[in-house]
Amino acid sequence: MRAIETSKGGGFSYVARGQLWESPDWFRALTLQERTEGLPGGCHAEPGPPVDPERAERRYARWRAQPPFSAEGAWSRRLAADGLSEASFLSLLGEPDADLARRQGEPPPWLLDLERAFTHPSPHAFPEPSLPERARQHLGFLEAVRPLLDAGYSRLCQGVLELAAGPGELPFDPQSAPAFLAAGLAQHLILLMSRTMVLELNLAGREGRLAGETPEARFASFVAALRSPATALAVLRQYPVLARQMVETVSCWIEVSLELLRHLRDDAEELRGAFSPDRHPGKLAAVETGLGDSHRGGRTVAVLTFASGLRLVYKPKPMGVETAFQELLAWTAQKGFEPAFRRLRVVDRGDHGWVEWMEMAPCATAEELTRFYRRQGGYLALLYLLAATDFHHENLIAAGEHPVLLDLEALFHPWVAEIGAGPGETPLGRPLFASVLQSGMLPMRTRWGAGEAASVDLSGLAAPMVQTTPQPVLATEAAGTDAMRFVRRPVELSPGKSRPTLNGAEVALCDFLAPLVDGFVAMYRLLAGHREELAGPGGPLAAFAEAEIRVIVRMTRTYATLFMEGQHPFSLGDALDRDRLLDRLWEVIEEWPRLAALVPAERRSLLRGDIPLFTAQPGSRRCARASPASTRRTSSARRGSSATPSRPCSTAARNTPRPRSPRRPGHRRETRSWQSPGRSAAAWRSSPSARPGRRTGSPPRLTRRLPGAWPWRASTSISACRASFSSSPTWAR
Fold this sequence. Notes:
Shape: globular
Oligomer: single chain
Structural class: alpha+beta
């Protein structure tokens, strides 16, 4: 790379404006869809032959060899998803970088942000984050984007000062709050860039560019070189997809962080009344972000700790289902279920909410364990009624004698194989899905790779404290030295907190089958005995009808694997290579062709760094993808035009009582017809042909679980429960 003129500022070197930023190499970060949208005359225009036919044919052959694209039907559907013809696709594959840059005209917004970060000193330096030891060994890699971190942190500090400008007492200190949020960004950027940095580290060693007598010294030499803008920009220019990820991740972090602090400021009085009425919670003392999956533009669950010791869980999503479930638990207590469930305090603010923090705690006596498992049996029946799924060991916590469900987004879950099916179609496997096994609470082996032995037990009731992955996963070796590398090996899974202990010692589930089954039977009989009130228009289930629920169309592990494989350096040099990798989402379409309509939305989420999220409502047959409104600044906006404003954030939260969970302000919902065999709640209410014995005002999903001959159904469920225990080798651990 040509010499770069630099200047000192804030302890770092900054790059002067020049031809570096006009290089066509940066435009390789454009995705296939973005290149398609920029075609002259639109994507349906007839293109000329590819400028580089050999390159186009080579790329085309690799794409077509990837399953399921050897079949013409699957390939045609793939091209149609981006509005491409065979000729236009080949033309894009063979387009030189210089032609692509010329066709796009102006530099993309993320490149302008990167240029500004490297050419203008920032008033604030990104603080040293507090990270676990394993993550700290990767911390030096962030030197490659230090100017970008400083610029982002400065923007965050400015935004926090603007939040603090209003009247009233703030629940956080504007000077310290930004630093609390730094660790989450640092860990995420390390995750994105480590594989590329390790490759560059090894190349530098082979080429003799590392100085030092020890492996640690040579690693330090590599980190020191990254502080040079010439070295850092050479790496980013070689991997423009990674450079774009860095910029957009920092921008999302700023937006999401300011949104969290804004919600905390606006909700402070209500939070104090709900969670700490007798004691002032004090100022914000710590924030832990990145908990759970990333959805809706980098938004994750966060835990906030205050000076008084109070801890709150912040959830950036509608909380209607959480509120309705706590009310349902109260209803079961009123109807006589014993022992009563522990209810969580929830503050629902429409597009986000707050939940009290729960700590795992042991049981002190065998009687407490008996009550714990009777409650678990009651939960099994309740979750069976609510068609719940995904209650694995991380979604439940044993708080003394109280099992507490932590994530309720997968209630009223449809069977994925039925999505788009017509009336009368019943795919194979329906009886198993409709059983009590659906919730994921009972012991069950989950496939993790090929072979009979490649499975683990992740159930809420019986997941072992210690398990290793049957299949090797990506991990680092020799971190912090010049021999650092990525390998694949089995690793230990994080222990869950779902199983109770007696004074700290593990207990055998088989010793408590009787209270578990008793709890199931008692709850089932309670629900059947009050079915008219339960499923009536004013009953406790009616509150769920318009609450937002999640539709899980693929395992999260599938998405996470695709995303992480997309961080391989070979996928970060050209966005088309990453597009081809993400097209593995199409493999399942041969088995479930109706899911083809969801693949484009899945790809967009993964390209943004999110786990794809689809939502629905129990009273509807529509499936939606809640996605953030476009926050990419247009070139004209950057140049002073009145076009799209810069990265809009959500408006202040509302606290209006309402049965419906509203859309997130500033977000759009893409909907697809549900078309499941079951009718919607509205259709059921208006239908003259509702089954005898059922209230015509009840949604079908709320009544189909309690048929008239409920004792037969209950005995069948108990049999399934017993069969599950006897067939699983893990429940006695």
